[in-house]
Amino acid sequence: MSQRASILGAHRFLRKLPSGQIERLAEMAEHVSFPAHCRLFEEGTPARSFWLIDAGQVAVDTLVPGRGRVTIELLGRDDVLGLSWLQSPYQWQHGAITTQPMQAFQFDAAKVRQACEEDPELGYELLKRLMAVAAQRLQATRARMVQARSTAA
């Protein structure tokens, strides 16, 4: 297994994925670094990538009329940044900005979607894992909303 694939295979999101699938994903990944306060994407723009975070932190945000940008969630090491690349029309539903210098593996979304079409087992594994991420984030959002309501009451 290549060094990049070994590192990727240790990421929480990809653990226990078959080595051949990790190798394939490693071919589509680039290790990148971003400084603090770097806007990675804007709501409504094309979702061409996603990231597996190694280090640092990023704030996922949204524009709220009359309030400006509001942070929805903070993501860090071992988190997945970006889910909008998976669903047509492949546009970001939120924005993201680094709050600390960030290192991550960046994936070309079109290449990963193509690989999933060519290898349905890979596609199914990634879909299950991404759905688990989405479900966890929905539960966390629900908990924050319930807490905000009880605080406001």
Characterise this structure.
With 153 residues, the protein is α+β, with helices and mostly antiparallel strands. The protein has one domain (3-152): Jelly Rolls (Sandwich). The chain is 39% helix and 30% strand. It has a four-stranded antiparallel beta sheet. A four-stranded antiparallel beta sheet has the order 2-7-4-5, with no helix packed on it. A hairpin with a 3-residue loop joins strand 4 (57-64) and strand 5 (68-76). Helix 1 (3-10) packs across helix 2 and helix 3 crosses helix 4. It starts with a helix and ends with a helix. 22% of the residues are buried. The model has no long low-confidence stretch (mean pLDDT 93).
Q: Can you give me a brief rundown of this structure?
A:
Helix content is 39%, strand content 30%. With 153 residues, it is of the alpha+beta class. The protein has one domain: Jelly Rolls (Sandwich).
How are the secondary structure elements laid out?
Blueprint: H1 3-10, H2 19-26, E1 29-34, E2 39-41, E3 49-55, E4 57-64, E5 68-76, E6 80-81, E7 95-98, E8 102-108, H3 109-118, H4 120-152
Antiparallel strand pairs: 1-8, 2-7, 3-6, 3-8, 4-5, 4-7
Helix pairs in contact: 1-2, 3-4
